[in-house]
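WP5 quarterly update. Target: UPF0309 protein SO3561_04958. Source organism: Streptomyces olivochromogenes. Length: 251 aa.
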Amino acid sequence: MSDRKLAGQFFDAAIGLLQRVRDEDAGDIEAAGILIADTVADGGRLFAFGAGHSSLAAQDVVYRAGGLALMNLLAVPGVVGVDVMPATLGSALERVDGLASAVLDSSPVRAGDVLVIISLSGRNALPVEMAMNARALGVKVIGVTSVAYASETKSRHVSGTYLKDHCDIVLDSRIAVGDAELTLETIEAPFAPASTVVTTALLQAVMATAAGALADRGIEPPLLRSGNVDGGHEWNGRVMTEYGDRIFYRR
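Structure tokens (predicted):
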């Protein structure tokens, strides 16, 4: 089989998943966008968290051109990405009880805010406790996960629950357990994960919905512009000054 054919199969698989979440998650995407718009309008703050490769989708909505300036990364040391050595430490930390509580207690997250939690499996202690503790604080939680894991794997949290069980809104990425879209007789392991493609698309759809909902209310969405276009830095400076009390990644 040619490499080009495999590439085409991956694109087909990714496009199929994107079409599924577009159609099957439409109501939840709209609800999540409205919740974010409500929070911005009411003076709340926005946070995103993800561990391991799920952190890529969280970072994708923080401090970027075309995105909401108010979205902040809730970072947990050691689990943000593969920069920690050894890389396996990040996976181990996701299973540590109590870590989420320590992070939230040290963060600016408070009642009335929104926390987006991204976890493909939703089975590890960290995302489950993050959602549970955030809601106990009066924070609204949007979970981005593959609901299939809840029926095909065992929870690693003492409660036996998953991220999806502790969210105000759940966005189902529809990713199959194992996160690999392709197989080949000559390759023993399945390969070509699509979770990052789908999860980032889901979140950008939510942010687009939120921006539109704010505009419909006569509120200018606090969007950032690219610093690589003329006037971008000036625009961003104005937005960050206006919303400085709700932006934490610049401090």
